[in-house]
Amino acid sequence: MKTSATPMPSSTMTRSTAVAEHALALLDTSCVIDFPDELEALAEHAAVSTVTIAELAYSIHHDDPLVAAAREARYRDVLNEFEPIPYSARAAHLYGAIAATVRKSGRNPRPRRIDLMLASVAAEIGAVLLTRNLADFAAIGNAARVVAV
Q1: Could you tell me which CATH class the domain 10-148 is placed in?
Q2: For the chain, which residues make up each domain, given as ranges?
Q3: Coil/strand/helix, residue 15
Q4: pLDDT digits over 79-117, tens only?
């Protein structure tokens, strides 16, 4: 697993002789919270989006101070380990098309806006999107490749 502008957490930085399936993986927030063990076999590089950083920042505001502290520690660890990919105007444009595709399928895109924004970032950068919640990306068509881990 190569670690360039988007390094992997040190626990996964071991070299493998296996060839990764994908050049780049964008991690869904679920994968940042519960890091996939098989990531090295799935991608040469891993990245997070500023959309995921926003979700992590929101999660810090919890009523239980111990939960809030643990979430803030995770937030800081992710910022220390990755250089987040900014949400761009091109990703926003792709989001519109992805949300329209979901709506056309008969599903409501509004409850999954953040997930669809992550899919738009993956589509923009040509990355596979890794998630633990495949149903969150139902009906996005072929805009982005989503892989359940």
Answers
A1: alpha beta
A2: 10-148
A3: coil
A4: 999 999 999 999 999 999 999 999 999 999 999 999 999
